[in-house]
Amino acid sequence: MRYSLELRQSQKNSHVLLPVILFWMAILLHQSQVILGINISFADFFCLMVFINLVIRNQLIIPTLPLNFFIIVSLLVLATAVIYVPIQFNSNSNPAAIVSDYIKLSASFVYFLIGYNLSNINYLDKTIKWYSLFSILVGILGIIFTIFSINVFSNILFFGGTRFRGLMIDPNYYSVLQITGLVYFTRSKIVEARYKYLAVFITFLAVLTSGSKTGIITLICYLALRLIEYLFLKKKRTGEVVVHLFFIVFLILLAPLLFGISEKAMYHLTSSIPSFFRIQELLTDITGAVSESGSGRSDAWNVALQVIQLSPFLGVGIGTYTSLTGEMFQYGNLAHNTFLQLLAEWGIPLTTCFFGYVFFLLGKVSLIDFHRTETNLILRDFMIILLVGSMAISLNSARILWLILGALIYSANAQRVNHT
């Protein structure tokens, strides 16, 4: 009897603490730092607390199919790294690197479970709201620090002294997270229109302060998606359609003039804000923007493609990629592309299954009416932004990606169950 009372009291306390823990986890998803070769965020500590809290409340659900897939991936990448790579490539595996990368993989699965379970207990909306609000606050901070050349904490907040990166390790990663923070404000029905436009403006400036070409391309792609969705999927009167089509034709005709004006504006901004130079280069020389000015994307992608060709089915496992590319191609860096990174590490079959299922989910949420709920569309947009950003940076260990994926899988399947 006493044990039962203590258990109920513990569950009650955990219920009170959970919103507080989730608040800190949500805002700290915008923070990360490399310590001893491992990308660590304070959000990890609160993520673990959420996990324990769910266990105490007896609310933790571990879905069978994702668990089985995680086990298969784990066995394959570990066996490949420890057994196959040393034999096939005559390269000694680095146990520390393998352990480090497997910790990242396991942490990603934990974030996946957290997202899945937050959807189940209806705490996901609050978590996304807190995450998005903090994103805007960090973006405003970056705009103020950049415009007024504030040097306080510049070593922490800026990359290379000019590119604002917030609390993240990389300005490209920061810029993509800024764009994910925009989704809630533009999708939520409770946010007034004027605040939606303000959020778009702040996000645009925040991405510019990061000097991230990846960020500006991702933002353009997302806004283009929303425009297409508005024009062709949202029900409108005939008069509205005619006006919108006329406006689009008008913009197309003015495009050369607008491009020239924007180029001149970027030139003047670059003279006072150095981080804008990278964005100006994207407008004037897109080929050079990919391969020069510190990007080196083309070299990274070429090396990744060569690694995939060397081991297309098994991949090279975890903890081996940078050492192998350093030995074989004198390029000891990541692929700067999530798709290529996973193809190189997991092999083509597993990676194809994984992304095939992800795109299936996105298609289901986009095309089937009863799946097109506000929450599902927010989750879908998060995933689309992260996948577009993944074309130029390796986000395979990004915490927010796995949390959102877990939430989307639960939410989409729950919608199907409710409908039937």
Overall residue-averaged pLDDT value: 86
Shape: globular
Query: How many domains make up the 3D coordinates?
Result: 1
The largest beta-sheet arranges its strands as 1-2
How large is the count of helical segments?
18
Helix and strand sequence:
HEEHHHHHEEHHHHHHHHHHHH
Summarize the structure.
This protein is mainly alpha-helical and 420 residues long. The protein contains 18 helices and 4 strands.
SSE order and pairing:
Elements: H1 2-28, E1 33-35, E2 38-40, H2 43-56, H3 64-89, H4 95-120, H5 124-147, H6 154-157, E3 158-159, E4 163-164, H7 171-187, H8 193-210, H9 213-232, H10 238-272, H11 277-284, H12 286-291, H13 297-310, H14 321-329, H15 338-346, H16 348-367, H17 374-389, H18 399-419
Helix pairs in contact: 1-2, 1-5, 2-4, 3-4, 4-18, 5-7, 5-8, 7-8, 7-9, 7-17, 9-17, 10-11, 13-15, 15-16, 16-17, 16-18, 17-18
Description:
By secondary structure, the chain is mainly alpha-helical. The chain has one domain (2-419). The protein contains 18 helices and four strands. The protein has helices at residues 2-28, 43-56, 64-89, 95-120, 124-147, 154-157, 171-187, 193-210, 213-232, 238-272, 277-284, 286-291, 297-310, 321-329, 338-346, 348-367, 374-389, 399-419, and strands at 33-35, 38-40, 158-159, 163-164. The chain has a two-stranded antiparallel sheet with strand order 1-2. A two-stranded antiparallel sheet has the order 3-4. A hairpin with a 3-residue loop joins strand 3 (158-159) and strand 4.
